[in-house]
Design goal:
homodimer, 474 residues, alpha+beta, BirA Bifunctional Protein, domain 2, Translation Initiation Factor IF3, 13 helices, 23 strands, 27% strand
């Protein structure tokens, strides 16, 4: 296997090589941008789904699933929304040999699938809040270059849709989503910024959009999630009304929260290094790989490896015992590229003593056991997650840099932090200067020390300026 | 809420009413036959998926996911197969405003999506067996009457696809699938028959098909799963070849194993009664509902109910504490229709004593606790599953009846067991006589005592006759 390109020499080339070498996906399927989830990649996806399910259900959201096909008639009810998607959807026009009377859209997102049913489900204030989510695949007729996990045509997608009794309740749901995302990102050990997008960059139909972005080297960022407040923008056309406690009628206020397989791309992007992928234990396809080394020990190492594998699986860990005929060095190399958090080497000495030589993916080596071996493995994995998060946070902190003049933006090698007055004209000046996007206003404290923003980098006005971020989105 | 129709007065009317009353699905979506998985129904589906995943992975199968869209060019490679599906598929013909060069089929099943990739994955005998499965939605442009879970246009589908080195290995995989299904069916407490379908009724492209059928009243049966042996019927057109140990080339032998949301329909069909759905604990959306009854006890029952709910959830149980404002009787009624296996009533006395009055969905009542209350709940649930299975087995045994003359078939009120010589002409005579289908030859012992089959019910020949089943498939 050829060496990987260096991450520092260009993110995308490195990223594509790592995804390929780790065998997370197969891009050779007959439709460009629709990739195959390999057995190894699928395990990561399943683990990611489990993290999302755990955190969203902890906030009182319920799983549902709506159909993948949406009648054109429903799809077109919200004008802004359809405008945003009209060039990006797949159309089903035939069933068997029959032309369909009403063409069907393969869902790009499910507002227009769900909201006609919400209209039926919601009658009274007692039906609120309605917090439901689904994890499904969505489809975009993507004409730009596709990239595994980052930009694909069939997207593994998480979407929460909620109905609230009013603006305040919807704002509270947005805050709850931000909290759920914080816990998901901690599980993935991925630091991020939450930014309120400028008006010209919000989701079609949204009142406002909060995006979750990560820096991915140079001045580049990757959007890995969004939370939208719709107010009544959808509930009016879809007539999602309820009877208030005093007997009146009101439209619900709606929110959505969207995540996708991009989170896996983010995990690769943030943690991967020049030796391959690096998975945090939460989403690692295998959290532990056990490599028996026979030598003069005969079958003992292999037997102990199998027994240990079973003991760890009984603790709920994802474990692979590599009994292939390759040399140990080849196995180490393979599972290093594949990003396995923890390797346990079992030689004759370990098999004899009931211990294991543990080597984590950051290269830390220790001998664990024989007492409490399973607990030691769990503790080592948790320590690894912590170390990975620290490493990621340190890189994250170094990824931002303040700019005080527009002409500094052209040569940005970091995500730029700048003062903005909030006017659209200045925003567009900034976007032109950096040849990218004004990402918006932080919803939470930024990871670098910042004083007063001072004058707007565009118009030099000092009135109402705030710190904003600008980058070249991937 | 109106009373349910009696199950004995007609299966389908009763079935539709129960599915509706239990709120497992919403049929009011804008495309007929594409239904919404409600929060309650989705929990059953998720639990069903977990049963399938557990049992198939225990047999060494790995999860994958292939794209939902299949290029027409790939879809058409296996002639028999495409012929079987040509009137039943949805076609995507447009992306945005652009006509696609190659139309895409929304997968009705994934042979033609997977096999071009299997061609790339398999090189050597060391790559075999390849056992992979996916749980995805498939699509059929169904023109018959649609029924929730039983006949829908977007189908929640389980499909295993395997490649084996030869016929024997493929036959062994079929046997392994039968074993996995037996364990799944035990978890669902659903008795079934496994039948090798007659040649004229096998899956398009299969060498032979084994179907899993259940009786659903009168002479009706429901097919709830299939296992196919393809031999080289797909591996030749898709060129799935491997290098044998002696350096030669051979085509793989393939098998598939298909299940779907019909299993949920089967659960409703088999266990449900005139008072609603009845779920075995394995797939019950809520395994336990706790109903606090305040009375003079003030808040104590509600507080104990919440604490008990948490303790049971910590044991991994799916628990709902019904703190709504309805009267206890209304709650009992609601959760009975919904099919919850076990209701725990907590009145002031129970709250005081740390006990619960347990009433299972078959009406058995007991007081459990205060010692080992959680364990008692688990034991009660397991006892309930056993009782449910016994009840189902008893009905199952009564659902079959031997027929010795063709004219007995016309008035069949049970699934018919009859002697068949194996000739197609006799098979068609039987199908005409019962106005249904010859289901095929049992792969396992039938649940009624049977002697020698005697002469064929069609031609009266005694040569090579075997017991076969005939019914009117739903």
């Amino acid at each position: 296997m050829a060496d990987l390109p260096a991450k520092a020499n260009g993110f995308i080339d490195w990223y594509l090589a790592v995804v390929e070498a780790a065998n997370l996906t197969d891009k050779r399927y007959g439709v460009k941008g629709m990739n195959v989830w390999t057995p190894y990649g699928f395990l990561a996806r399943r683990a990611l789904d489990a993290v999302m399910v755990r955190e969203i259900e902890a906030t009182g959201s319920h799983p549902v699933e709506f159909p993948a096909l949406i009648p054109q008639t429903e799809f077109q009810k919200e004008a802004e929304h359809i405008k945003g998607f009209t060039t990006q959807v797949y159309w089903v026009t035939r069933g068997g040999a029959t032309e369909l009377d009403v063409p069907l859209v393969l869902r790009p997102t499910s507002e227009t699938a769900m909201y006609p049913i919400f209209h039926l489900w919601i009658r009274s204030h007692r039906d609120l809040p309605l917090n439901v989510y689904q994890i499904v695949n969505t489809f975009r007729y993507e004409t730009k270059t596709t990239r595994p996990f980052l930009r694909v045509r069939e997207i593994h997608f998480f979407e929460e849709h909620t109905c609230q009794s009013g603006d305040d309740q919807a704002t509270a749901r947005v805050a709850s989503n931000l909290g759920a995302f914080r816990r998901m990102a901690e599980a993935l050990a991925v630091p991020y910024v939450a930014l309120r997008r400028p008006d010209w960059d919000k989701f079609p139909g949204a009142f406002y959009s909060i995006a979750l972005d990560i820096p991915v080297g140079e001045a580049r960022t990757l959007q890995i999630g969004t939370i939208h407040h719709y107010r009544e923008n959808f509930s009016r056309p879809y007539e999602i009304e309820y009877e208030t406690p005093d007997g009146g009628k009101a439209f619900v206020h709606q929110t959505t929260f969207g995540l996708s397989e991009r989170l896996l791309g983010a995990v690769v992007a943030v943690h991967g290094d020049d030796r391959g992928a690096v998975f945090p234990p939460s989403v690692a396809p295998y959290q532990v790989v056990i490599v028996p080394i026979s030598g003069k020990g005969g079958n003992l190492p292999a037997q102990f490896a199998e027994r240990l594998g079973k003991r760890l699986r009984d603790r709920g860990l994802r474990v692979h015992v590599d009994t292939s005929e390759d040399r140990p060095g080849a196995k180490y190399y393979r599972w290093e590229i594949a990003g396995v958090p923890l390797r346990l080497e079992i030689g004759p000495r370990e098999a004899e003593a009931g211990t294991a030589t543990a080597v984590d993916r950051l290269g830390h080596r220790s001998v664990i056991g024989p007492a409490d071996l399973e607990t030691e493995v769990e503790r080592t994995l948790e320590g690894f997650r912590g170390a990975l998060f620290e490493k990621a946070l340190s890189a994250f902190r170094g990824a931002f840099e303040v700019a005080t003049h527009l002409d500094q933006l052209r040569d940005s090698t970091k995500v730029r932090v700048l003062a903005w007055c909030g006017q659209e004209a200045c925003g567009h000046q900034i976007e032109k200067a950096i040849d990218g996007a004004l990402l918006g206003l932080p919803e939470e404290e930024l990871p670098i020390p910042l004083g007063d923003p001072g004058p707007c980098i565009g118009c030099s006005s000092t009135a109402g300026t705030r710190w904003a971020l600008a980058s070249r989105p991937l």
